[in-house]
Amino acid sequence: MRIRPILGGIKSYIPWLSSVKWLSSSRGTGGTISARYCYSVWLRHLCLAQDYGLPTQPAVIAELGPGDSIGSGLAGLLTGSQKYYALDVVEYTTTKRNRAIFEELVGLFADRADIPDEDEFPDVYPRLRSYGFPSEILTEERLGVSLDAAKLERIRQDLLDMPDGPQGGSAIRYICPWYDSAVIEPETVDMIFSQAVLEHVEEIDATCRAMRRWLKTGGVMSHQIDFSSHNITETWNGHWSLSDFTWRLIKGRKRFLINREPLSTHVELLKKTGCRVVCVLPVTDTGGTQRSRLARRYEHISDEDLTTKSAHILAVKE
Ligand SMILES: C[S@@+](CC[C@H](N)C(=O)[O-])C[C@H]1O[C@@H](n2cnc3c(N)ncnc32)[C@H](O)[C@@H]1O
């Protein structure tokens, strides 16, 4: 167990300690600060949908937890989606960053750039069979429409208006914080995706129900989930050896940390809410904390849960 996470949790109860620099954690959320990351993430979700025979031309998309920028959703708009909902609980993103990332994304699509692979982003999943530009999905005809100059101008304008400006007719709706499923009309979304987010969601049950409610019948969910301790412990799965008391100390009063739910919880919740799980692509690691060290709450988890470090789940609303 590392000491810094506990100090971070205690710090969250004492506001003046926030000014102590060496106790501060980084402000950002991770990858979406980079246009190439956003390009890679969106195209991986799209290519995986294609691999599993799911629709690859979603008109309305929603992303849970975009983080530092809404770049992954912007990539969706640049590949033909008409409407993008971004739902977060902390406003990490800025208009300036989103505009810069948008322009870089336009260049990547204009160049039909290959998908950045594991050499460039070794920690990003899912892996693909091929990282060439997916021209069988993104045909010249499709890109001709989606990269039309007038459409690009409209998105630029929409970016200026968000997050607080008029969003009625906009292609982009950034909703933060979102906590109520009423923020999106039921049965209006074709695809919901998230990258490294569901492990952070505290109200995971209600969130799964909300996502199902927003999806049209036949709509797709595509979630990449990281079950690791996010470096809070020495071993990748050491968070499952910590007592609830220690975990409460670490979490402190932070808006979210990680929910410590293993793979099976997510799969079961999706099934319970009425979705068909199309595939689960796990990344396993047997080198972490062993069963004998698990906290009581986790001592009965399956071997599969204990060794699954991350997974991509594709599901469809029945
Ligand atoms: C590790 S970051 C990932 C950001 C981005 N998806 C990426 O790939 O870099 C986790 C994100 O999930 C968001 N988050 C946490 N709880 C959430 C919730 N209940 N609903 C939506 N987003 C949430 C955080 O605010 C943060 O933006």
Give a summary of the structure in a few sentences.
With 318 residues, this protein is α/β, with parallel strands linked by helices.
Describe this structure in words.
With 318 residues, this protein is an alpha/beta fold. It has a single domain (3-317), classed as Rossmann fold (3-Layer(aba) Sandwich). Helices cover 33% and strands 17% of the residues. The protein has helices at residues 3-11, 35-51, 71-78, 95-110, 140-146, 149-161, 204-214, 244-251, 263-272, 303-307, and strands spanning 60-64, 83-87, 172-175, 189-195, 215-226, 275-284, 308-317. Strands 3-2-1-4-5-7-6 form a seven-stranded mixed β-sheet, sandwiched between helices. The protein is globular and about 60 Å long. It starts with a helix and ends with a strand. The model is unreliable at 21-26 (pLDDT under 50). Residues 29-32, 41, 64-67, 87-90, 92, 195-197, 200-201, 207, 256 line the site of S-adenosylmethionine.
Fold topology:
Elements: H1 3-11, H2 35-51, E1 60-64, H3 71-78, E2 83-87, H4 95-110, H5 140-146, H6 149-161, E3 172-175, E4 189-195, H7 204-214, E5 215-226, H8 244-251, H9 263-272, E6 275-284, H10 303-307, E7 308-317
Number of strands: 7
CATH T-level topology: Rossmann fold
Walk across the major sheet and give the strand order.
3-2-1-4-5-7-6
* H-E string: HHEHEHHHEEHEHHEHE
CATH evolutionary superfamily: Vaccinia Virus protein VP39
* Poorly predicted runs: 21-26
Proportion of helical residues: 25-40%
Strand fraction equals 15-25%
> Distance between the terminal alpha carbons, to the nearest Å?
42 Å
Q: Overall mean pLDDT score? A: 92
Rg, nearest Å: 20 Å
Give the tally of structural domains. 1
Largest pleated sheet: 7 strands, mixed
Q: Give the CATH level 1 class.
A: Alpha Beta
- How many DSSP H or I helices? 10
